[in-house]
Amino acid sequence: MIDKLSLIAVYPEMILLVMACVVALFDLGVKSRTRTATYLLTMLTLAVVAALQASYASSGQTVYAFSGMVVSDVMGNWLKCFATLAVMVSLVYGRPYAADRDMLLGGELFVLSMFSLLGMFVMISGSNFLVIYMGVELLTLSSYALVALRRDHTLSIEAAMKYFVLGALASGFLLYGMSMIYGATGSLDLQEVAKAISTGQIKQQVLVFGLVFVVAGLAFKFGVVPFHMWIPDVYQGAPTAITLMIGGAPKLAAFAVMIRLLVEGMPGLAIDWQQMLMLLAIASLAVGNLAAIAQTNLKRMLAFSTISHMGFVLIGMMSGVVDGQAGGAGNAYSSSMFYVVSYVLTTLASFGVILLLARNGFESEEIADFAGLNQRSPLYAGIMALCLFSLAGIPPMVGFYAKLAVLQALVASGGAMHIGLAIFAVMMSLIGAFYYLRVVKVMYFDAPITASAVVAPFEVRAVLSLNGALLLLLGLLPGGLMLLCANAIKQMLAS
Amino acid sequence: MGLLSLAIWTPIAFGVVLLALGRDDQARAVRWVALIGAVVSLLVTLPLYTQFNVTTAAMQFVENTPWFERFNVNYHLGIDGISVWFILLTAFINLIVVIAGWEVITSRVNQYMGAFLILSGLMIGVFCALDGMLFYVFFEATLIPMYLIIGVWGGPNKIYAAFKFFLYTLLGSLLMLIALIYLYIVSGYSFDLLTWQKLPINSHAQTLLFFAFLAAFAVKVPMWPVHTWLPDVHVEAPTGGSAVLAAIMLKLGAYGFLRFSLPITPDASHEWAGLMVGLSLAAVIYVGLVTMVQTDMKKLVAYSSIAHMGFVTLGFFLFNDLGLAGGIVQMISHGFVSAAMFLGIGVLYDRMHSREIASYGGVINTMPKFAVFAMLFAMANCGLPGTAGFVGEWMVILGAVKVNFWVGTAAASALIFGAAYTLWMVKRVYLGPVANDHVKHLKDINAREFFFLTLLAIAVLYLGLYPKPFTDVMDVSVADLLKHVAQSKLN
Fold it and tell me: Which of A277, B79, B336, B397 has a Cα at 20 to 30 A from A85?
């Protein structure tokens, strides 16, 4: 079903692009301090886009457009739908915070968010090296600007600079790797590349050389060890609303790019990239969990925990192909997808609570700031506890099933070494449990420093409660989301 | 909705309601709702006993619906003669704990009561689950309420205790998780326990699985030498937490041996029985001696719990009917007796705010009614004939003598240690002249305390004088399990 120009595949992207420009112009006429009109228009657009993506996904079709440069498939549609929802939720949580910190003097927060979402869409849909690269750049350039949105705040600017320099380096890696593979295979189109590699006539050294750079570039974007240095600094330095924006939805896009480049583009090199991913995963699990113990800043702790969670995602990605047989691929990749989706859901809620507790002139990002939260607001302490137990992988929270899925894919994929890696992974998550529990301890066992009640606008309270409830609900009934991921990956592998 | 689902979800539903709607300023209403919840939860478990068919070893009250099909996990519940009493025991202890915490807990009452109700539902879930993943989810989920109970309402060193409890037990269960995943894959993608029990497994894999299960269950029981978390946790936990921990949570580990280790890896169980018997005897004798020198009452009872649980694991790995049935009876009786001991200490602690034996002396003079109960429970704790403590220990000792005279003798020595440490504590705390002014001003137990201590006393005496209802129920299932374990599963 390859059309030369199937515009229908990119309607959501077109809507998003047009509306981002409209919102930018429309905002010029908005005077309100909280930019309510701009916000509503943005949310309306995103809601339409999310609904459109969901309807595409449930139609179950795979459509290639622009001579195979972009693809709209079930996996992509669901990921785009989830990314859109994640951005919407981020905006709901982040707007009061941004308004308090002079980040809403213009409508940039909304416009840049929409552009970064557009970048994610392009990444997810790209079926061509250059298209994917363009998407990555659109996302990261918007993100640099978002991080620097509080331009009178030194820490943010420093974070933005670090992010920019390292991000540019990573993009360079990615582009360099892509160019090597292009040189070897003579094509930028992922399907052509896959075909060329499968002939076995391409020089292996050049391919693997290119692959190393592609994987390194991806690892940078994903934030896995040893390409993780920017994550803690940027998470901590960025305004919390923006941390949520870059720590949530983009993980979905990064996952999609990894699927597109490695699984769709270079399945013939699986034995090579699986080894690389394994090393990255081991290092991420170790460094992420061990370094998180030492943190006193909650945002920084969550940054290190992100690193370890991305290690788990990679474990799923490296378990697909065994001895050249891709029989377990569907199982493995869908486990990773489930992991990423549930991780993003948890991240949204946990940063949501951090944002909620931040007041004008007070960031509430030290772990100690959460002392006695249970006495001040049992609801928000409960939501945060759900997040933390989910991140620690304690049933019946959704995070447990994510770990279960990934670990069973790992054990299914091989012999003693993979079981050993599984044991290593659970031991590392035991260490993880320690620092998550420490936050629970602060919230529940310590006495509050301030007795002031936690106030939040109705919409934040509603969305946050729903978000927290989902963590538990998806833990009690994880079947639906698991099946969704399994079907999405099955279709992707079949096409 | 089946009876088992009802038994699991009734307390959880009440607990969730309390968490969601309870306010600190309505503590009175919260307590009543909790009490109603606990009573209803106990009532819904009664049909499980009255309608139980004692003539079959097959699973009863079975419920089986797909839970998440992606991994072929089923919501598969069912009980046999081994598990039925634990469900009733859990619901009963839960009711006692709710009554015991009535006036004692004054801060965040709704969270306290809610946590115990939810915990009780989760533990019942562990005893009913016939699906490996369902079992694991219930087994692990119990950590969360217990962690909060210890950490929020515990003693001065509660944070250390809460972390030690959580991380220690999590360590064991994570290894079991890998074992479950491994079984899922080698069994052709099934988490069904009954399928696993029929699955042939080679000797090497059985050994590894056996030790993975051992890691989880030995920590939970706890067996020597991974018992060190228990005294620390008991000392810091609130009275109700200690009671539930000793009465039910320790049994989750012992129960795991019956559902996982023995039937799934019978050959490895036989191969390593010597080790298990050795560790159990170490618990019985060494920990028995350690118990004697404790100066803290709660710590003393905690160590004596370890020694008593040593009898349970000893009985399981003798592979005869007396040993196995004795182990299970010991689990039930220890459930009543340890809960009674901890609640008794709680009664004293609420008045004196001290757990040190040295702070007491001559309590019988000022609290005569309470001292009678305390005496009775102490006798049960040292295994006096006619009390619950005697039946299980006696059966296990008989079973041990059948296997090896010296093992039996070593196990029997525990009766001496048990008598020694318990009676010595009784002497120092209750007997003699009034030791100090604090003891002099002690008030005897009120109606509420009298009520729950009476309930426990009835249970302790009933099980001791007429254990037939308990053993009758389990006979067929125990015989079936022994037959199953006797068959090699090597391929």
Answer: A277
Q: Helices B405-429 and B297-316 meet at what angle, rounded to 10?
A: 160
Angstrom distance (rounded) from CA A53 to CA A14:
13
Single-letter amino acid code for the residue at A84: T
Any chain A CB within 8 A of the CB of B71?
A: yes
Handedness of CA B247, B14, B345, B383 (dihedral sign): negative
Q: Which of B68, B168, B236 to mutate to test the interface with A (most CBs of A within 10 A)?
A: B68
Give the one of A400, A408, A441 whose C-beta lies nearest to B71's C-beta.
A408
At A454, give phi and psi (nearest 5°).
Answer: -90, 120
pLDDT tens across the length of chain A (495 residues): 445 567 888 899 999 999 999 999 998 888 888 888 999 999 999 999 999 999 999 988 888 888 888 999 999 999 999 999 999 999 999 998 888 888 888 888 999 999 999 999 999 999 999 999 999 999 999 999 999 988 888 889 999 999 999 999 999 999 999 999 999 998 999 999 999 988 888 888 889 999 999 999 999 988 898 888 899 999 999 999 999 999 999 999 999 999 999 999 888 888 889 999 999 999 999 999 999 999 999 999 999 999 999 999 999 999 888 877 877 888 899 999 999 999 999 999 999 999 988 876 777 788 888 888 888 888 899 999 999 999 999 988 999 999 999 999 998 887 778 888 999 999 999 999 999 999 999 999 888 887 777 888 889 999 999 999 999 999 899 989 999 999 999 988 887
Task: Report the run of H or E that residue B68 belongs to, with start and end.
Answer: strand B60-68
**Closest CA in chain B for residue A474:** B68
Q: Which residues in chain B have their CB less than 8 angstroms from residue A382's CB?
A: 19
Instruction: Work out the minimum CA distance from A399 to partner chain B, whole angstroms.
Output: 12
**C-alpha span between B39 and B94 (Å, rounded):** 9
C-alpha to C-alpha distance for B296 and B286, rounded to whole angstroms:
18
Which residue shows structure tokens 């309306």? A44
Measured between alpha carbons, how far is B186 from B201 in angstroms, rounded to an integer?
Answer: 9
ipTM (interface predicted TM): 0.91
Query: What count of other Cβ atoms lies within 10 Å of the Cβ of residue B112?
Result: 29
Q: Which amino acid is at B21?
A: L
Q: How many CB pairs under 8 A join A and B?
A: 93
**b (16+ CB within 10 A) / e for B234-267:** bbbbbbbbbbbbbbbbbbbbbbbbbbbbbbbbbb
Q: At what angle do helices A154-185 and A230-237 cross, to 10 degrees?
A: 140
Rounded to whole angstroms, how far apart are CA atoms A183 and A211? Answer: 12
Q: Cβ–Cβ of A483/B174 closer than 8 Å?
A: no
**CA torsion, points A203, A209, A214, A218, in degrees to nearest 10?**
140
How confident is the model over B81-109, as pLDDT tens digits? 888 889 999 999 999 999 988 888 888 88
* Residue A396 touches chain B, beta carbons under 8 Å: yes
Q: Which of residues 442-461 of A touch B (CB under 8 A)?
A: 444-445
* AA letter at B75: Y
| Alpha-carbon gap, residue A226 to A113, rounded angstroms | 28
Burial per residue of A208-237, b for 16 or more beta-carbon CB atoms within 10 angstroms, e otherwise:
bbbbbbbbbbbbbbbbbbebbebbbbbbbb
A423 contact residues in B (CB cutoff 8 A): 175, 178
Give every CB contact of residue B427 below 8 A, 6+ residues apart in sequence: none
Q: Where are the domains of chain B?
A: 272-491
For residue A408, give the nearest of B141, B147, B184 by CB distance. Answer: B184
| B71·A482 Cβ contact <8 A | yes
Nearest CB partner across the interface for A395, out of B136, B148, B159: B136
Query: How crowded is residue A399: how many other Cβ atoms within 10 Å of its Cβ?
Result: 29
